[in-house]
Design brief:
Number of domains of chain A: 3
CATH class of the largest domain in chain A: Alpha Beta
Protein name (chains A, B): LacI family DNA-binding transcriptional regulator
Distance between the termini of chain A: 73 Å
Largest interface: A-B, 45 and 45 residues
Order of helices and strands of chain A: HHHHEHEHEHEEHEHEHEHEEHEE
CATH superfamily of the largest domain in chain A: Response regulator
Pfam family, one (chains A, B): Peripla_BP_3
Structural class of chain A: alpha/beta
Largest sheet of chain A: 6 strands, parallel
Number of strands of chain A: 12
Number of helices of chain A: 12
Oligomer: homodimer
Strand content of chain A: 15-25%
Keywords (chains A, B): DNA-binding, Transcription, Transcription regulation
Radius of gyration of chain A: 26 Å
Low-confidence stretches of chain A: 1-5
GO molecular function (chains A, B): DNA binding
DNA sequence: ACGTGTACCACAAACGTTTTCATACTTCCG
DNA sequence: CGGAAGTATGAAAACGTTTGTGGTACACGT
């Protein structure tokens, strides 16, 4: 049985008593097998098993000074872009001594800060995915616990990044090759690093090719955000649209087809639009037509973040933290059905 | 500053020394204000603030015997059905003393068991959403920590449930009214409680109305599972299809339109199908045509689960646990575009 | 002047581990 | 045979809190 008759859990001393040894020996039998006699060890293990002994994590944390928990904060669990990230991190830690706390900020900066503060008390490390908080705030958090950043750079902590450049370049080249010369960018949240990056490379690529770019938004980075965006795009005189992410692209697509605007332009029919998204969310390949989008190696990103965190935790914080290394993973364009000649 | 010059965090004794009182007084000033003089309290609080004092959770947990964490285990984070559930639970606990651990079992029973075991060491309570583990396993877990079940019944713990009956009844009545007499059910995972419930009420409803029901599957409860299902449905001689959930319904819809099968049947064109889903996932209202589906009050369910857990935790486990109360929330049919006359 | 009550606070024990230090017993070698 | 080196174990301190017990100081009534 796992619990004593009185409902209380077995302690290390109970095991020790049953095995006829001291508590220290039990502890050693469990944590440093080479320090105890093989026979005693066997006996101790058997007794521990018989009592259903489970070390008390709080007591361990107290003496060891580490919780063996890591935190993971993402802007929105419901956003399918983050699902593979979350799963990647969880998969990495699944068979380690660490457990992971996951929280969702609802895309809200204040919530993000509160959550980070609350979590920093209960974890050894915190993985912040696309955080929106200010740089100084970030430094404050980083002073309390070790952190790893995903899709955000800061001197305060190491980061793993998506390199939007290649995907963006390919997207612009593709659209240019199809003859488009006047395009729109549907912006995401203004304080989002991803948004700034995407806009930057998009602007650079367009400028280099003589494409005129108008920026609309910002829009809520959700499906419904795309509805408003679609209507505003139609009021502009553009032939191709880059959306902040797949969700708004999908929203745009839905609204456009509902309004009878062909995607992409149908030869002969006036007023069609080409559309490119970002993220390659699962749903993106399942629409009619399937969405042309820039794919991100999100699972790889997650693994890199988890591995970086794990490494930092393992080296036991020797003196000054190592100069933040930044992994950077390339994106690429997936040409599907929503882009076509002007 | 939040950390001492040597990097170590301020302890309660440091605060006590600075304020010229004992550690106990500091503790009481923080936890039981009415027991200490207002003036001393003010001074203590100021000193605590000045040192950036944060109580050590491990030490608190050790002496209090509670972690002030709760765990939440769901089958699949990426499944949009669970997103509102997760958010609901998180929202409930956001401004309480509790933090929530979230984990994802990847729809795998073994992982679910491992996760539950691992979590039970670190939390005061565990919310299990649609668990697949066996009843005896469930009892084992329940003996280690207090648990609340969502969408699963067991004598071992209280549960919050969705009442599929009304939604199912409405769906069958709707389809019957449209003239359908031979339908298919696309089954989900065999060991899933939701699947059993849905099938049961569906079978009952059909039998009561003289509708012939063929069961296909089980299918993977995902979008891609719907592809295979669609092909198999077309090999059957049915006019309406009930899918295990929206994801597979969406997959079916996508595959069907790709194969040129009208949804719902077009008068004059042979071989069309009516389609009804389950869950009312966000995407369901955004397809063409939008999906007729049975909506679940998932957020309400989450709130109920969180509240039940909170209550159980608050009453401090007096003797035997109270007889499992089970909240039950009604579902209902949303008639949209994928169902029509035969 | 003396108990009685009250308000405030300090002391110390306790929570369940890990780890340092000391000790007892072996073994080995000169 | 004596001591050094090694092996296996136990006692006790430490981690940072909370809380029960007790003591001091003061006000009050007699």
């Amino acid at each position: 049985m796992s619990t004593a008759p009185d409902g209380s859990r077995a302690t290390i001393r109970a095991v020790a008593r049953l095995a006829g040894v001291s508590a220290s020996t039990v502890s050693r039998a469990l944590n440093a097998p080479e320090l105890v006699n093989a026979e005693t060890r066997r006996r101790v293990l058997e007794c521990a098993d018989r009592l259903g002994y489970q070390p008390n994590r709080a007591a361990q944390s107290l003496v060891l000074g580490r919780t063996r928990n890591v935190g993971l904060i993402v802007p929105d669990i419901a956003n399918p872009f983050y699902a593979p990230f979350i799963k990647g991190v969880e998969a990495h830690f699944r068979d380690t001594e660490y457990a992971v706390f996951l929280a969702d900020t609802d895309e809200d900066t204040a919530t993000e800060v509160r959550l980070a503060e609350a979590m920093s008390e209960r974890v050894d490390g915190l993985i912040l995915c696309a955080p929106r908080m200010s740089g100084t705030r970030l430094r404050t958090v980083a002073s309390k616990t070790t952190i790893v950043l995903a899709n955000r750079v800061s001197r305060a902590a190491p980061s793993v990044l998506l390199d939007f450049r290649p995907g963006m370049e390919q997207a612009v080249a593709h659209v240019h090759a199809l003859g488009h010369r006047r395009c729109a960018y549907l912006a995401g949240p203004a304080n989002s690093w991803s948004n700034r990056q995407r806009r930057r490379y998009l602007a650079a690529g367009c400028a280099a090719r003589g494409i005129e770019l108008v920026e609309l938004g910002p829009y809520e980075p959700r499906f419904t955000g795309g509805f408003r965006a679609a209507d505003e795009v139609l009021a502009q005189d553009v032939t191709a649209v880059f959306a902040y992410n797949d969700l708004v692209a999908l929203g745009v697509l839905s609204r456009l087809t509902a309004r009878g605007v062909p995607v992409p332009a149908r030869p002969g029919t006036p007023g069609g639009l080409s559309l490119v998204g970002f993220d390659d969310v699962p749903m993106a390949s399942m629409t009619h037509p399937p969405l042309t989008t820039v794919a991100m190696p999100v699972t790889a990103l997650a693994r890199a973040a988890a591995a970086a965190m794990h490494a930092m935790l393992a080296e036991g914080a020797p003196g000054a933290p190592p100069p933040p290394p930044a992994a950077e993973l390339a994106t690429r364009l997936l040409i599907r059905g929503t882009t076509g000649p002007i």
